[in-house]
């Protein structure tokens, strides 16, 4: 059932300060809208007051300094795919972006939206986890940096207050020399939601592995692959997901050895 359009209010942010002020008045941000509009179309968008942050220029850039590559929250998948520095130093971001949706979704969808939408099946979170990303959360009163591995706390539960906007994502430039590995297993290669998504880094005996679609939140693996707790759902079974995760781990260890 479609949503009743007049029941909704949508305003456009003039700039970042305006957006932050309106969040503290109960508005929620809409960026590319590729998740929000799906809910809207299905008549499942409960919240009624929205502010578009899409045209805020200070949220869309990829910046490089000696320690970090920093992405504004509005960085699109297309921006990620076109970035030479991400291709060179954080290729798993480019691979995740290339395997996300189709061209239209890649042009409109943002990395900030992918993080805050908090789907356990999203494709950039495993890459962000292995690269030890940090996210900046800003309100009209203060801003703070949070380690991305601590951001997701439960299914769609995040360390993010209602009046906070995710403004930046930064990636520490310390994975030079590591081998990078990314696999998305879905019903087909593109335009499919992951059944399992795997990101891995390796330097000699040291490995960093993260997975999506194997639990309520994207997961940075601390020990053995058997620690994951995949579930049965409409897209796959827990048993299949566990087997795929083990196979991907084997492939990762093989191709990076
Ligand atoms: C056809 C199609 C295919 C898709 N394929 C994939 C896929 O393969 N892989 C995948 O991972 N995803 C996929 N998606 C989902 C979606 O495109 C991504 O999650 C996208 O990154 C969402 O970004 P957005 O800017 O469009 O978010 P929006 O829809 O604008 O927002 C999503 C949520 O995040 C919040 N939000 C957005 N930006 C911020 C911010 N800066 N700070 C705080 N909160 C914020 C919003 O309030 C909302 O709750 C697909 C979607 C469609 C429609």
In short:
By secondary structure, the protein is α+β, with helices and mostly antiparallel strands.
Return the structural class.
alpha+beta
Low-pLDDT parts are: none
Shape: globular
Strand content of the residues, in percent? 25-35%
| Total E-strand runs | 14
Radius of gyration over alpha carbons? Answer: 18 Å
SSE order in H/E notation?
EHEHEEEHHHHHHEEEEEEEEEH
Physical arrangement of strands within the biggest beta sheet? 4-5-10-6-7
Percent of residues in helices comes to: 25-40%
Largest sheet: 5 strands, antiparallel
Continuous helix count: 9
pLDDT averaged residue by residue: 94
The small-molecule ligands in this entry are: flavin-adenine dinucleotide
Distance separating the two termini: 52 Å
What does this structure look like?
The chain is an alpha+beta fold. The chain is built from nine helices and 14 strands. The strands form four sheets. The protein has a five-stranded antiparallel β-sheet with strand order 4-5-10-6-7. A four-stranded antiparallel β-sheet has the order 11-12-13-14, with helices on both faces. Helices cover 28% and strands 26% of the residues. It has helices at 16-23, 36-41, 77-82, 84-89, 91-98, 103-108, 111-117, 124-130, 238-255; strands at residues 9-12, 28-30, 49-52, 62-64, 68-72, 134-138, 143-147, 152-154, 157-158, 165-172, 179-185, 196-203, 206-212, 219-220. It binds flavin-adenine dinucleotide (FAD). Flavin-adenine dinucleotide binds at residues 28-36, 38, 73, 100-101, 105, 108-110, 112-114, 116-117, 122-123, 165-166.
């Amino acid at each position: 059932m479609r949503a009743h359009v007049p029941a909704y209010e949508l305003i456009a942010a003039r700039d970042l300060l305006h957006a932050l002020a309106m969040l503290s008045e109960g508005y929620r941000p809409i960026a590319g809208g590729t998740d929000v509009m799906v809910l809207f179309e299905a008549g499942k968008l409960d919240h009624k007051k929205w502010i578009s942050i899409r045209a805020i220029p200070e949220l869309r850039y990829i910046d490089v300094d000696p320690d970090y590559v920093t992405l504004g929250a509005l960085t699109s998948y297309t921006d990620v795919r076109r970035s030479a520095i991400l291709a060179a130093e954080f290729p798993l971001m480019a691979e995740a972006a290339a395997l996300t949706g189709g061209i239209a979704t890649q042009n409109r969808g943002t990395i900030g939206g992918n993080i805050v939408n908090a789907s356990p099946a999203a494709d950039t979170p495993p890459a962000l986890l292995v690269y030890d990303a940090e996210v900046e959360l800003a309100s009209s009163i203060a801003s703070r940096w949070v380690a991305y591995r601590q951001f997701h706390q439960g299914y769609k539960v995040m360390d993010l207050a209602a009046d906070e906007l995710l403004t930046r994502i930064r990636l520490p430039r310390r994975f030079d020399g590591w081998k990078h590995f990314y696999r998305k297993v879905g019903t087909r290669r593109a335009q499919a939601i992951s059944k399992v998504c795997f990101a891995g880094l390796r330097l000699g005996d040291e490995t960093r592995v993260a997975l999506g679609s194997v639990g309520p939140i994207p997961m940075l693996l601390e020990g053995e692959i058997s620690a994951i707790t995949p579930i049965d759902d409409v897209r796959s079974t827990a048993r299949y997901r566990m087997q795929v995760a083990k196979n991907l781990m084997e492939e990762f260890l093989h191709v990076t050895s």
